[in-house]
Amino acid sequence: MAAYNSMELMICVAARFLQDGKIATIGTGAPCAAAMLAQKTHAPNLVMMFEAGGVAPILPTMPVSVGDSRTYYRGLMATSMRDVMATMARGMVDYCFLGGAQIDAYGNINSTMIGDDYDDPKVRLPGSGGANDLASMAWHSMVLTVHDKRRFVEKMYFVTTPGYLDGPGARERAGLPPDSGPYKVITDLAVMGYNADTCRMQVESLHPGVDMEQVQANTSFEIKSAPQITQTEPPTARDLEILRTEVDPHRYIIGR
User: Which residue of 10, 11, 129, 223 is most buried, as measured by CB atoms within 10 A?
Assistant: First the structure.
């Protein structure tokens, strides 16, 4: 089995969840690497959209921002953020990737502030950007992040981006599309999904060498395993070769 680091594992695992023929709104960094890897392996017809307006580019190399000219390279459209968001509002986008400082058991995300006083926080974070819109309107949202107690919290200081809010039916009561919401959380320890009855995060697969006690020790809320918990399949030699030589040859992401 080929050697790999935790970032390479997370990217390869995320890529597997991107199905061929689907549409995904992609940011930069690890999500972009995952989408590029998916296109070069099992999902050549995956359509990538970038917030700034690039639609279905054939990325020559990793873009550094969502407005990078490479996000338009040999694409189907060079349009605007308004059209990208309108496409999402019409229910045409299958996946999006999100990030943030905190995530809770229902997949809600905080990227606004840390502290008890909104006007005088301990840390002021970048805010939503397009994250709230992405999580509200894409069918499935995914998160790639390091697994740490400070990120996986019982109670957040601010809900920037809706997950399942406070549980079953809450998204629908808030006016969000039925059957949409958080899909997968991929960390350096495990892959998490969400229980269909409770909407709470649950562990679906553990990465090689990791056990449930380690996941719980790095999670501030109680986290259970899915009934059919498995071990995460490690990256294949082909995945790693493509990732290292074609997707991120300068190790901007996988070298972190």
Answer: 11
C-alpha–C-alpha distance, residues 125 and 147, integer Å = 19
Which tokens sit at 4?
């790999």
Distance, in Å, from the CA atom of 37 to the CA atom of 34, rounded to the nearest integer, reads 5
Distance between CA atoms of residues 248 and 62, nearest Å = 7
Name the β-bridge partners of 96: 25, 141
Which amino acid is present at 163?
A: G
51 annotated active-site:
yes
19 conformational bin, left if phi > 0, alpha if psi -120 to 50, beta if neither: beta
Contact 52, 66 (CB under 8 A): yes
51, 222, 233, 246: which is the annotated catalytic residue? 51
**Per-residue 3-state assignment (H helix, E strand, C coil) for 15-58:** HHCCCCCCEEECCCCHHHHHHHHHHHCCCCCCEEECCCCEECCC
Number of helices (H), then strands (E), in the chain:
7, 14
The SS3 call for residue 98 is: strand
- The pLDDT tens digits along the chain (256 residues) read 679 999 999 999 999 999 999 999 998 899 999 999 999 999 999 999 999 999 999 998 889 888 899 999 999 999 999 999 999 999 999 999 988 899 999 999 999 999 999 999 999 999 988 899 999 999 999 999 999 999 999 999 999 999 999 999 999 999 999 999 999 999 999 999 999 999 999 999 999 999 999 999 999 999 999 999 999 999 999 999 999 999 999 999 998 7
